[in-house]
Amino acid sequence: MRQSLKRVALACGLLATLGFVATDVAAAEKAPAIDPQAIKVLRAMSDYLNKAQTFSFNVEVSYDVVYGSDEKLTFLRSGNVVVQSPSRFKARISELSVSKEFYYDGKSFTLWDPSLNLYATTTAPGTIDAAIDDLNKRFGIAVPIGQLMRSNFLASVMDRVVAAGYIGLAKVRGKEAHHLALASADLDWQVWVAAGNKPVPLLIIGTVKNEKHWPQYRAWLTNWKTGQTVFERSFRFKPPKGAEKIEFVPAGSKPK
Amino acid sequence: MFKITGLGTFLAAVILGFAGFGATSIITSEEAVARGPAGYRGQARRIGRRTARRVIRRHYLFLGGVRRAYVTGLPVGCPSVIYAGVRHYYCGSVYYRPYYQGNTVVYIIVE
To answer: What domains are defined for chain A?
Structure first.
């Protein structure tokens, strides 16, 4: 176990050296920190999602939790996301028997826990981008895979990216994909974008750099659909039988 | 394979903050232990009552400018009552009102 973890760490280290030449001053002078080929792929993906109007995918997530000095566990969750730009989304994320459902219809946002059958609703701004920021600011809500729902994925990440590299072609569950590596101050991430005329992300891996054991977040994105018809009413939450309404606690209410 | 010695730290651990991807906790690590997985839960139980009690350890937040105690999960089988249109749970003599804090349901103790 320890041995294999070390091997993973070593592989990540190698990858970091290959992808993020900017960490090495001498190399940084020779090669640009931002590889235009990587940006080209990201832009194609960003534009494709933006133009799709409606898109949906399933997601399988595994994420690590480090605790104590030498223990790391991986937890799994899965879900489904439907986005209709510029002003609707719904998402369902499940972990164990716990699910959370997110509904946004351009006017209001609802978070529902089906296992507890408790929901809370609030008004929200008129676009997905504004709603994601507003919900996070007001209530500390993290919309799942929210980054991919934004109208311009590329622009929304580039202000934080300090290095970007094109690693090469790879196969993700049998599909050919461009393997990209990006670095920001505290998070390294890799994206595998489908090659061809439907450049959707197939796999995203985030690695926390400044935490011991480099915990990772991995999201496999499958069953992509674009341009399909989704009725407006399906983005509106209708309380099922027995559902009870509660309130959101305003963010910033944690004592120091 | 994993020792359980770190459980206390695990309970206290804040879930990873991959803010950009919204990976931040739809479920807290405390919920993860309190609600399963089954094998892990059994091990947690064997550690004894002190640890079990820590699973429903109190936290604090400000609501309307007032410092309030809350827990992230309730003991199984607490009865409930509707008060002011909202379901409250009572465990012993303590009443709890559920709220969403971020993506997670928490139970604030009614003073």
So the answer is: 2-245 (2.50.20.10)
